[in-house]
Amino acid sequence: MEGCSQVVLNVGRHLTEGKRHGLKKDSVEYKLMVKNARPYTGYGELNVVLSRSKIRNDDDEEMREDGEVEEAQDEGQAENNEDQDEDEAQEEDQEDSDSDSEDSDSEEEDSEDSNSDAVPDKMNNLEFFTFRGTKTNRQRWLVGFYTYLARPAAGNKKQAVKLQHASQMRALLEACEAGGDDITCLAEDAGDAVWLRWVQPMLDSQGKKPGTIVSYLTSYEMFLRFVNNPRYSTFGAPLNEDLRLILKELQPEIKGWRATIDAQTQDIQNQRYVDETASLLNADEVVKLRSSKPYVDGERIILQASQGKKLSEQEFAKARDFIISRFSIDCATRPGPVNNAKLSDYEAAETYDDVKVMLVARHKRSKDGPAILAMVPDLKEKMDIYLQKIRPQFAQPDEDKIFVTVDGCAFREGTVGRRISNFCEKAGIRLKEERLAAVDWRKLVATATKEKATPEEGELVRRVMAHSKTTAERAYVRIKLTKLGAEAVKVIARVIAPEPKKEEKVEQNDDDAPEKPSHSSPEPARVRNDPPDDAPGQSRLSQSPEKSPSRHASPVRNEPPDSAIGLSALPSEQSKSLPSTSSYSVSLLSTGTRMVHPTAPKALSEKQKEAIKQVFKEEISNGKKTTIEEAQRKCCTTSVLGALSFSKSRVKQIVNHVNYLVGPPRPTVSPQDLPVATGPVDRWALDLATSSGSTSSFGSRTRLVWNETDATLLERKFRHEPSLPTTTTIRAMLSGDRFLNEILERKGWQKVYDKLKNMYKKRQRDT
């Protein structure tokens, strides 16, 4: 191009980054330079067919590591810059556009397709939406929509996000009416043109993933909001009333369209869950990463830099990628906070318990507070070396971002995550055929936290990872269902299994029954008025319960339990096969009734015990025992113990476990340091000596007579209490009164409490 003869693969980045040009992407000079750039046709390309190169996910520093041209990039032509920006902004835009839906806080997107469909127009998207000399009404509406997205009514979207929504809406219009010059095609098919001509074919052919289709419908909803807004609808050609009425009624229905897609594609989402669970990172791969060549090389290069070695661009890239990946591994953070971290953020970082914590204000979930980047001592030491020895060799003087490219500029937004993927790929860690990304580390941490950590620890990790609880469950936690299914089938088999049947019939002939000793219990009385069809000589107790249920419902009178069925008359072998006497007799005298043994109390699990230690940590450390009321209130705040808070017996188990951990009361001071109590003891001894009947026999004790004034004060304070309050309430009432508090200190708690109990007993007797 004019004024520059350098050979590059990415004209756009060459013009915007570095010291040579430094142009703004939207400037007129930038557009002219891109337009006038001509392809390189040197000797090495004579026998090569020029074609668009496949977009890759590697940055310029990786190309330099491999010995490529200095400015070699991933894209093949400059006009693909905008499309690349769309892909990078896809995740961020999905949350912005779906902020009012329940999945708005999810980082993970189903959309991995390109958001710019092929439109039969040689003009690229950015030029199309910024071109002022519009030719058709459709283009006027789309240009107006692109402008509207920057307004506060649409959320003041970024350029990449605006371009995505406008491009998706352009593709929908082309699908409804290719080459059309208006937007009236949206109202065809009773307003269902987009569904019938684009959504349904995509679902049938699976041409795009469900998340991508939902993203297109979100753009469609925003476009309808723009068209139906009278303040902004003047951008395009006037619409007739019938068309405007259809579009106005269609706007609130788009939310239902998205819900329909979500419901009809659950199998795809479930399959994705299964695939992600099967390919989830594990601890062995983490160990493998820490012993891999990129990891070891990164540590070695940083050590050499601390000793004064001047690094090459390749070594700088390895050291930088090592530190970036460490943040993702140690903190499970998104790449955004690492990309946006500034030197001032690191200088303002504070240290607690040997861990330095840096707060980054700008990140994807900024509304939840600053992002938290924690550095263990090892990582903190390497960060100091990077900032003091390595970064100054490459960073531009006016650059305030911590992590920079080999050109000294900050990473483009959304691109630093590629360094993590590239680092893991070189370490030999991949997820099947896909490259590992930062989100995979987040899934590993979220899943392990869900399985092994307490709820309180889970909240800490979730806050550092900066996502909501709903997002964690839907997008990150990938618990294997194998264990759950195996345990569930055993539970099902146990609860539906029939209980073992017990022999409830005893065939015994009275004539054959042996005589009993005279001192034994009398023979049980027979039931009178036996039915005529009873076998002669057959015992009443030998009848089947089905034959006479009404009689069996009433017990036989005056039957000793041990001789109710004459077990002594049975052979020894038959006696062994029968149940115990009491249960056997009950089963005979009640129709169809089976003994249900009480369920043994279930012990606390190890997970519940760990949760108890966390919830009652303060009580355990201070040696303070808890009560049922306090325990029930605290249990409701956690998911592990919340299910137990509804059962008083289970809460009592928790209280007993807490009090067991607390142990016996701990003395606050040693016995030698206790003050000598003289006043109350002297008064008590004096009263004992002077009171009547003080000469008591050995083992007896003279009753302490209360001062009438003290007793009156107590009665007056508690006269409005219908029953004896709890000890906590009594202590509070005594402490709140100066005179009663003095009595409490003088008499002691036990004497005051006994006095109150006697006082209430007297009230009950009087009433």
TrEMBL record:
InterPro entries: DNA_brk_join_enz (IPR011010), Integrase-like_cat_sf (IPR013762). Keywords: DNA recombination. GO terms for biological process: DNA integration; DNA recombination. The keyword tRNA processing does not apply. Transmembrane segments: none annotated. Residues 575-584 have a biased composition (Low complexity). One of its GO terms (molecular function) is DNA binding. Residues 58-115 have a biased composition (Acidic residues). The keyword Lipid biosynthesis does not apply. Residues 501-518 have a biased composition (Basic and acidic residues). This is Uncharacterized protein. It comes from Desmophyllum pertusum. The lineage of its organism: Eukaryota, Metazoa, Cnidaria, Anthozoa, Hexacorallia.
